[in-house]
Amino acid sequence: MTHYLKNTPWDQRTLKIPTYELTSAEPEALQQTNETEGHFTVKVDPLLDKERLNKYGFYYTDTLITPVCKRDQLHLFEKEGIAISSSGDKQTILDIAGQAFVHGRFHRDFQVPNPLADLRYARWLEDLIDQKQVYYLYYQDEIAGFFGFDGNKVLLLGMDQTFTSRGLAKPFTSQACLKLLSLGYKELFTSVSAINMVSLNLFSSIGFKLKGAVDVYHKLNGKPLTD
């Protein structure tokens, strides 16, 4: 029998139960979730008939949009006093993360307590910092935000609330994207929740084009989660 469950240890260490992402939404794959305890994620084409997902206990969590930007499409914005660096104070970034992630799919999952969702994203960011996959965003020599990435994918973006409404988002994001493109990539892409209009508008304003979407469904098979 083909095994359709891919372990996601980065989620398991926070939820404290086995966690998986399905590699298929075919009935045989969905049936395996009935035979295994844990938390499951499956990403599907929005046009897929969802009846089979509901039959196996999956519930809608989020829709993820994929903005893409080619090198020659990037619109650069400048702002005096900003700087993009690969180094900075780790704890400052983690403190900012505590207020940055409110649109994540785990925050939208009614089966996952918000403190666990917060911890999941904070740990993800910490992993990226340790792997040297974060740019520190400075404004007038103070850390104002972060830009996390993996290869040519923009993963996490956040800014300290004390620096919002200063016209920094477009300069920070476009200049960080330029720094990433300078590594030799021909295009960048990211994944944004359909309800996160601020981020979608931000990426669109600097040249990203919306290309494709997936619906995300979760399932919890076992005891309720507690924080």
UniProtKB/TrEMBL annotation:
Transmembrane segments: none annotated. Residues 80-226 form the N-acetyltransferase domain. InterPro entries: Acyl_CoA_acyltransferase, GNAT_dom. It comes from the Bacteria. This is N-acetyltransferase. It comes from Halobacillus naozhouensis.
